[in-house]
Amino acid sequence: MKITLDIQDSKYDTFLKFIKTLNYVSINQEDETPQWQKDEVNRRMQLVDKGDMKTRNLKDTKEDLFKK
């Protein structure tokens, strides 16, 4: 059986230490960011570095998105 738990960050280490003491439990920590997304971020960063893609700061983007 598999379950998913949401644990407060401040309690994570303590919980993990405890759960590892149980011989009938195995732990598989999964990376929450899928590989395709990491690849896309790297591709876009390379485009920005080469000057082939422009960036905008968050403040200007918010102003444009929330204009009334």
Descriptive report:
This protein has 68 residues and is mainly α. It has a domain at 33-68. It is 53% helix and 0% strand. It is elongated, with a radius of gyration of 21 Å. The N and C termini lie far apart (51 Å).
Name a few traits of the molecule.
Addiction module protein, CHP02574_addiction_mod, 68 residues, mainly alpha, 3 helices
Low-confidence parts? none
Range of strand content: under 5%
Give helix % range: 40-55%
Estimated structural class: mainly alpha
Number of helices: 3
The largest β sheet comes out as: none
Number of DSSP strands? 0
Mean pLDDT: 91
Gross geometry:
elongated
**Separation of termini?**
51 Å
Order of helices and strands: HHH
Query: From the alpha-carbon coordinates, what is the Rg to the nearest angstrom?
Result: 21 Å
Nutshell version of this structure?
The chain is an all-alpha fold and 68 residues long.
Topology:
Layout: H1 9-20, H2 35-50, H3 58-65
